[in-house]
Amino acid sequence: MSRVHCPRCQRPQSHCLCPLIPRLASRTRVLILQHPDEVRHALNTARLAALGLCNAELRIGEHFPELEAELAGRQVWLLFPGAAALHVEALAGQACGEERVLIVPDGTWRKARRLLHCNPWLAALPRLSLAEGLVSRYRLRKAPGPGALSTVEALVHCLNALEGQGRFDALLAPFEALIDGQIAAMGEEVFRRNHLRESPET
After folding, report:
1. Which of 26, 78, 136, 197 could disulfide-pair with 125, CB 3.0 to 4.6 Å?
2. Does CATH place domain 25-135+142-168 in 2.60.120?
3. What value does the mean pLDDT take over residues 98-126?
4. Residue 128 phi/psi, 5° resolution?
5. Other CB atoms closer than 10 Å to residue 150's CB: what's the count?
């Protein structure tokens, strides 16, 4: 018999995260484009981010031809690294007379690049990058390198930089609870043996 899942956060009902998900207003409109392979991922932080932001939308797919016309004439930025990417702190200092639209690809680096490949207009957008050296709080998976953050973490860093430090930290509460729940399910001993990072020598 399959477990009953919450229709909103899609977690098992016994581990529903909805009480921890905030509803935060932002001047920036957030549009998360999720690769289909990520939909049933245990750590679907894109859904958590979309649920926690009033001005956010989650769309699933590989091809988004409708968006090019929908966003024509808008101030649109792609949160994705690149040689010509503008640091988000620099954008925060620029005056903005209209609503900014922030597009965030959701998936592994390979899948995110696939989204850009399938949507040339997306790859051509001006890009934003985050500060170097940011470390993910996802303690159950070794990141491929510094700056490899989950979608919700990347959004928190970006929106905090654009609209005020600390304003969007509450988005991380369900993310932390999700990780704690996975650690509890595997057991502390297994977690320490397989995932706990060693402390650097002093």
Report:
1. 78
2. no
3. 94
4. -115, 145
5. 24
